[in-house]
Amino acid sequence: MRGWPDLGRGGPRNTADLPVILLGILGNIKYKTRLEKLAFLCEMEIFKSCKWYDDWKPYMYGPFSLKLLEDMDRLEKDGLVDIHTVKDPFGHDTKEYLLTESGRHKFNELIAPYVKECRQIRESLSKYNMFASNMPLLRKVYNKYPEYAAHSLITENVGRGQRI
Length: 164
Fold this sequence. Notes:
single chain, 7 helices, 7 strands
């Protein structure tokens, strides 16, 4: 796993720690798109001083990191995350992510140096994990970071507020 700079808070960490922290705070996360956007906002707005993922790029549904998805697969193989296929509101297959018991232990090991950031995640991002639709989250990302919506296939839908 790729590491990130030592921020003076207990030594270097792995990029895969970010999704463990997100899942530990937010609980299960439905939809790959939601996971990607929550991780993106977490990096851009909460953990500003470090680069968890250096490969964010504009893609079909906004910011995308292949390394994040690779880390999710690795976390599943390591027994820290369960990934289930579920149906979205339109009947399409999508993913649901949640920590295993081992993942919860890992989360508890990680959070001590990041109490402030964990509170910020809970306060600013948890509301986006409660909606059935990704629209409020996509609207926030597309409006605040339009350069990452440049190649989006759904920009017009997000602008019109259609349910996604």
